[in-house]
Structures are given as structure tokens and as C-alpha cells.
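Reopening: C-alpha cells for the FE3-S4 cluster complex, inputs below.
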Amino acid sequence: MRLTTEEQAMEAGEHGPAVAKAMEILVALGEIYGAEELVPVVSVQVAGVSYGNLGQAGLDFLQAWADQGARVVVPTTLNPAGMDLEAWRQLGIPESYARRQLEVIEAYRAMGISASCSCTPYLTGNRPRFAQHLAWSESSAVSYANSVLGARTNREGGPSALAAAITGRTPGYGLHLERNRQATLVVDVKCAPQSWADFGALGYLVGRQSGDAVPYFRFGPAESPGLEELKTLGAAMAASGAVALYHVQSVTPEARLRDVVESQAPNLTIKSLDEGYRALNSPGERVDLVWIGCPHASLVEIEQTASCLNGKELSSRLWVIAGREVIREARARGLIARIEASGGKVVGDACLLGAPLVEMGITSLATNSAKAAFYLRSLQGTQVRFGSLERCVEAAGTGVWPA
Ligand code: F3S
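Re-run output (same inputs, fresh job):
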């Protein structure tokens, strides 16, 4: 890999041991993937925040790097933690877990990282522009940044994102290169997805079948997916496959059908979502908790949840999870009060995949997120019901999944 004079100095330790360690990680990664150089990044989003996923070894690693003097040089935000950093007591998070989680956040803060914990940084003040290079970690955010905003990022691991934040650079391979951003699989959608859950089921099915392809979606004339549909679609594809970039005809900025046809890309036709719904639902009717907001909810999703609840009394817990800035705006518009009037909660900072759910007695969840449904069973060992927002709200009202 070609390094500039400054990068060579960083690698040689002239900027201190923390920077040298970061360069060592980036150069090793660049050499594995055949990068020719490092590219400057405008922002970083770091995963590996939830104590449930990091464990003590991860926390020790972060604290040691912070103690060596690691400091970020570009705007850097965090992926969700395992709990709401402010209201964890009210949500019943065990104190022993909370203490460790707060230590993780402290280690990141010591490096100069904003403790804005969200998987939708593009909704909370970090919205990259077309063609800007980033080093983001969270798979759904990577998909959104690449596909919907036209920015350029690979899916970084926690340490490589942190190394990018400390140096302001990332290895230039993969989706940083124009030639790798072309669509390679045409997906014809013939099943007319309506709800956000439908777009999640669609993403789940396509992700499972697309390997390392870059899908190019063609929807029917009546469907023009917006922010919520695209973030749900991308999150599900990134979960069931490893799709970090997709295009939607006439919607996303880099959709170029001509390129696809010229490359004679294969076709995939989706005629039904039934198989997606079947695969993402486990048996069992009881619902302990309904989770809305995976990826973290937008204002529109919070508003729709409040409307769906419409003052209904709940028998199960219902949590809508969102980034802090979105919550502030929702509060100002009176949406939080409407959800709380039913007994629901709007939770900040968290992702339930890293939360101590079983310790909290939560073993059965319902969600309208295909990504959450996909991972909950394997990572948390819980039962999951997956369906539309309306069905989830109904389940929260009765405590059982509607027939
Ligand atoms: Fe975000 Fe966690 Fe879902 S990181 S995308 S809420 S699985």
C-alpha cells in the first residue's frame, strides 16, 4: 500500500502509540483486501458498544487504547448500547449490567467520541453527502449511506472503524471504488409490498439469495419506497445476506439500469413474501415485549405508532427505540406523551440485541422489523413474532399475537 509521508510517520509512532496502533490495523486490513492507498473519511460510526456483545475483554481493549492517548480526529458517533443510558433504571435493566455499559461509554468519551448511540446516524445530525467517504460499522447504516445517500463506506468492524476515527483514514477498497458499485442482480418485485414489515420480509428474501451481488430493484409503478421502506429493506438484506449496497430504479442516486443490462446481470423475481413471514416467525402466542424501531425509528414511525395506539391500554410492554435527536423532536410534537398515555415507552440509545432480556424475564417478543426478528432468536434465544405495526400494537394490547 502507498502511504503518504505523514501516514508513514503515523505508522512509525511519531504521533504516539495510539495512532501507530490504529495505522497498524488499517495497513493490515488494506493489505488483506488489496487497497492501494488510504482515503480520508468525513465521519465514522463505531459498532461494538453494547456491553452484552463486547464483554469484559472488549471493555479492557477500549480502556487500554484510550489510556494510550487515542483521540478521534473526525466526527464520530456510536452504534446503540445495550440500554437507554438515561432511563435504564425505569426500564428494569440490572444495575451490574448498567455499570459496565456506562464504563464502555466512558472509554469512548475519553477518546472524544460523541455518546450519540444510534444505528440511524443519518437521522440524528450525521447525514453524509453524495460521494463522501466514510468508515461506518452498523450494517443497516452502511446500507443506507451507500444506497440511499450515495456515500461510500465498507462495513467496518469495531476496531477498524475506531482506527479510522483516530487517523481520519480508511483503506480504499470495496465500496470506496467506483467499479464495485455497479448493480449485478436485477430484482423484479411482483408482490406489491405495502407495510414496513413487507419491505423487511422482501429484504430478508433478497438478502438470502443475493450472495455478494449488488441488487437493482424494479418495483411496480404504484410503489415508490421512501425513507422508512428503504431503511427497513436495507437492514433486512444486510442481516440475511451481506448486502451493503443496492439500487432502486428511479429512486436511489446511483441506479443505472443501462449498466445492469450491459453486464447481463441475472434476474430474481419475488412474487410472494409468504416464505419471508414464515421464516421470521417462531411458534408461541405470548408476547412479553413489542419492539418498534430496528433500525432506530424515524419521526414518521413514532408518529404512526402513536396513531396506531390511539390511547389503547396495553397488557404487554411496548418500546419504540430511536436516536436522541429524533426523540427530542418527537417530544416537542407531543408524540411521546401520546405513546406514554397508553403505557408504551420511547427508549433512547439502545438495541435489544445486546440487552439483558432474559435476565429481565423477557423471552418472547414481537416486532415489525425483519432484522430484529432475524437476530433475536439466534442472539438472545427468545421467541419472536414478526408482522406489521398494526399487528404488533394489537399484540401489545392483548399480550398475545393476533391470529
Ligand atoms: Fe439498530 Fe440494533 Fe436493529 S443496531 S438496526 S436496532 S439490530
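The two ends are 58 Å apart (CA to CA). The longest strand covers residues 317-322. Marking as resolved unless the reporter disagrees.
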